[in-house]
Amino acid sequence: MTAHPPRSRVRSERLETRVTADQKNLIEHAAALQGRTVTDFVLTSVQEAARRAIEEHQRFDLSVRDSRAFVNALVNPKPVNDRLRDTVRRYRQATGT
Question: Is pTM, for the whole model, over 0.70?
Answer without folding.
Answer: no
